[in-house]
């Protein structure tokens, strides 16, 4: 079995203020006999001063300010229910309304040919937004992959509505006097057989409607593999019938998608996995290990720095990677959050076997027994279940910044995790994994699980003055003194209850006011049952 790990996702470290990539981590002392004595410091690296670097930083700065002030600013109710931000209210929705109004007016005036232009433009936008993360389009615009996917869906709905108005304009005209002119060879469709344009237009609309129906969340989530394959079939059919219908301009939207596809599968995967002409890839097949953990969990890990070439796998806390296991499928890539933080020696990914692909991966790992045979030489993160992985990475990065980068302005990090099964806690807070990591040269202790499981004077402290505080809520469990994890986490493990989010936020707000701070950052991966009454 082999596994290829490719392309960490945006956002870029260029505009994540807390995790600047302009710092270089330097190992200043190494004691192989006692790795705990290793010390790490951070040396600043001067940013580039070329005109291109200056232009790049200026563009990232403008992009970040626009994102913070407009495009990523939440709006009450709309953000929570529809995932719409202030930028959507100010730009996306008004533009869509204007476009629909224009086509409705053209429809009322029976302007068939003119009413067909806007649906074609909308289809170009739909196709252009099918690009994956790390594409040139998303990198230049700063549009996160998740938002691009949202706009892809939104533009698709607008395209269907515009196409419906275009078809209605034809029906209105067909029932009028202009129908006689068209049957005599003039008007709309001149130069193209009338029956061909009528039929292709009707089929095209039905294909668009079918694609929308099969993309609805209940169908997509329950029958994802069928949805994915059907999406491809309908996509190809839509392009073909668009060209037949005379809307060949839709192929313009395929250009960024095709370039991204060639770049991703023809270059990026080969570069990351097998390497290029100048050096081997970042990830070595022989250095990737997969381990089965309690509770149908998998742990994938590999050295952040390639042992043979010194190439480094660069990522930011909270990011995810796409993973392909060729033994399961050559074409399937699935996203998983990196649970380690960028300063750690090993890149770690935890996977819960929930879907078909992850269950196949779990079965393959069990059958091969691919356990590693040697040791390798004011924030509030809320998370539920396997959602701990991005929050763990962010908390570990904050812990590293506080202790090794002198980020003393950090006043409080309150980590809350709600989980059903005890074996999930055992998988994520694995003491053997924590002990084995201490043997790695260059290892610096992480907050989770290293510091939390520590028996030293700082480990497990619950003093109100502590910067880092953790609470784990085991919603379906009771204390079990015979279980090691219960003894190790007795200071922070709560049983048969759920977190009171309002109470936690109130406590953090009081802490913020006591330090003359009015801002609080809350990160949440929250199951719906947190808010049930």
Automatic annotation (TrEMBL):
Entry-linked InterPro entries: FAD-bd_8 (IPR013112), FAD-bd_FR_type (IPR017927), Fe3_Rdtase_TM_dom (IPR013130), FNR_nucleotide-bd (IPR039261), RBOH/FRE (IPR050369), Riboflavin_synthase-like_b-brl (IPR017938)
Subcellular location: Membrane
Main location as per UniProt: membrane
Membrane topology: Multi-pass membrane protein
GO MF, any single term: oxidoreductase activity
Entry's transmembrane regions: 89-108, 120-143, 149-172, 203-220, 232-259
A Gene Ontology cellular-component term: plasma membrane
Top-rank taxon: Eukaryota
Domain (FAD-binding FR-type): residue spans on this chain: 280-392
Assigned keywords, A-Z: Membrane, Oxidoreductase, Transmembrane, Transmembrane helix
Listed CDD domains: NOX_Duox_like_FAD_NADP (cd06186)
Protein name: FAD-binding FR-type domain-containing protein
The organism of origin for this protein: Phytophthora fragariae
């Amino acid at each position: 079995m082999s596994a290829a790990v490719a392309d960490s996702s945006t956002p870029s470290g260029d505009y994540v203020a807390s995790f600047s990539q302009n710092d270089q981590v330097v190992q200043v002392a190494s004691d192989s006999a006692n790795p705990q004595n290793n010390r790490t410091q951070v040396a600043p690296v001067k940013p580039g001063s070329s005109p291109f670097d200056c232009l790049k930083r200026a563009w990232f700065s403008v992009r970040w300010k626009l994102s913070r002030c407009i495009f990523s600013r939440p709006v009450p109710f709309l953000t929570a229910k529809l995932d719409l931000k202030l930028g959507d209210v100010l730009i996306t929705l008004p533009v869509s309304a204007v476009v629909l109004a224009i086509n409705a007016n053209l429809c009322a005036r029976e302007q068939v040919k003119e009413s067909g232009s806007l649906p074609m433009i909308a289809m170009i936008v739909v196709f252009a937004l099918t690009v994956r993360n790390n594409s040139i389009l998303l990198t230049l615009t700063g549009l996160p992959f998740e938002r691009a996917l949202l706009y892809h869906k939104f533009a698709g709905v607008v395209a269907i509505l515009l196409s419906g108005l275009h078809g209605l304009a034809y029906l209105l005209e067909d029932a009028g006097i202009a129908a006689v002119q068209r049957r005599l060879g003039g008007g709309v469709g001149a130069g193209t057989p009338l029956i061909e344009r009528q039929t292709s237009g009707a089929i095209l609309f039905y294909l668009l409607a079918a694609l929308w129906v099969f993309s609805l969340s209940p169908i997509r989530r329950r029958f994802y593999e069928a949805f994915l394959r059907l999406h491809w079939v309908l996509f190809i059919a839509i392009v073909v019938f668009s060209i037949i219908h005379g809307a060949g301009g839709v192929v313009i939207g395929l250009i960024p998608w095709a370039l991204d596809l060639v770049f991703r599968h023809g270059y990026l995967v080969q570069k990351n996995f097998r390497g290029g002409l100048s050096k081997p890839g970042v990830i070595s097949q022989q250095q990737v290990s997969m381990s089965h953990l309690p509770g149908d969990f998998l742990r994938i890990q590999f050295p952040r720095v390639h042992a043979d070439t010194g190439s480094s796998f660069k990522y930011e806390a909270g990011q995810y990677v796409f993973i392909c296991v060729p033994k399961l499928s050559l074409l399937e890539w699935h996203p998983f959050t990196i649970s380690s933080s960028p300063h750690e020696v090993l890149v770690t990914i935890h996977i819960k076997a929930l879907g078909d692909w992850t269950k196949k991966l779990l079965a393959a790992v069990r059958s091969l027994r691919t356990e590693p045979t040697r040791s390798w030489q004011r924030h509030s993160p809320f998370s539920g279940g396997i959602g701990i992985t991005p929050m763990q990475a962010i908390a570990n990065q904050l812990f590293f910044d506080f202790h090794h980068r002198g980020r003393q302005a950090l006043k409080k990090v309150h980590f809350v995790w709600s989980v059903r099964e005890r074996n999930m806690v055992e998988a994520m807070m694995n003491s053997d994994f924590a002990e084995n990591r201490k043997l790695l040269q260059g290892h610096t202790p992480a907050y989770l699980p290293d510091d939390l499981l520590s028996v030293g004077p700082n480990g497990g402290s619950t003093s109100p003055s502590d910067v880092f505080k953790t609470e784990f809520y085991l919603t379906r469990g009771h204390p079990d003194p015979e279980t090691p994890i219960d003894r190790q986490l007795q200071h922070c493990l709560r049983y048969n209850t759920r977190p009171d989010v309002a109470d936690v936020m109130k406590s953090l707000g009081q802490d913020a006011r006591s330090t003359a701070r009015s801002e609080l950052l809350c990160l949440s991966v929250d199951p719906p049952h947190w808010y049930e009454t």
